[in-house]
Inverse folding.
């Protein structure tokens, strides 16, 4: 049996918070119904599927790259770093890796990058779900740390509400200082 790890990241376009990545190896003896790209699921569906994935997958991991790393190496390289970290935590080591997107992370394991893999490969759909649930939970935590920013609503994305709150409240230590809307407030 070939062990395929699906890998996906979440949060590249956000102004705040870490970029998260997950890696999942599904158990062929325990198929999980309803797997699809996390963006096509409701929050309630993602939460329920995340529990099932964690229970029934052969193995899974979630990793991250911090805002300071994003600012230092750029968002693309930080996303690839988060993916590499997630892959490194998978045990046993997968035989093949499928990454959502057009770039393959810096790992010495065979695999491929595939655009829209999160809609086509169940392992990548599962990774998409775990990464999204983990990041969304962190944004709920950040809203408790920094009430009023609306992290629970916009999840760090550059919505009009987020931009308005940035203008009113200023930046937090979790904002990505290299991103133009945040950088403009620093100057």
């Amino acid at each position: 049996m070939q062990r395929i790890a699906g890998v996906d990241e979440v949060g590249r376009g956000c102004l705040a918070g870490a970029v998260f990545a997950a890696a999942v190896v599904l158990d062929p003896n325990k198929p999980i119904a309803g797997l699809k790209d996390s963006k096509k699921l409701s929050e309630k569906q993602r939460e329920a599927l995340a529990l099932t994935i964690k229970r029934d997958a052969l193995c899974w991991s979630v990793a991250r790259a911090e805002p300071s790393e994003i600012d230092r190496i750029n968002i693309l390289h930080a996303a690839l770093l988060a993916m590499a970290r997630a892959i490194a935590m998978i045990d046993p080591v997968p035989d093949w890796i499928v990454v959502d997107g057009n770039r393959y992370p810096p790992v010495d394991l065979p695999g491929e990058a595939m655009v829209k893999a999160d809609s086509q490969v169940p392992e990548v759909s599962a990774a998409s779900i775990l990464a999204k649930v983990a990041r969304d939970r962190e944004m709920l935590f950040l809203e408790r740390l920094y009430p009023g920013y609306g992290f629970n609503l916009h999840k760090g994305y550059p919505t009009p509400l987020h931009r308005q709150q940035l203008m009113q409240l200023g930046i937090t230590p979790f904002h990505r200082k290299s991103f133009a809307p945040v950088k403009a407030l620093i100057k």
The first strand starts at residue 4 and ends at 10. Residues 19 and 105 are 14 Å apart (CA to CA).
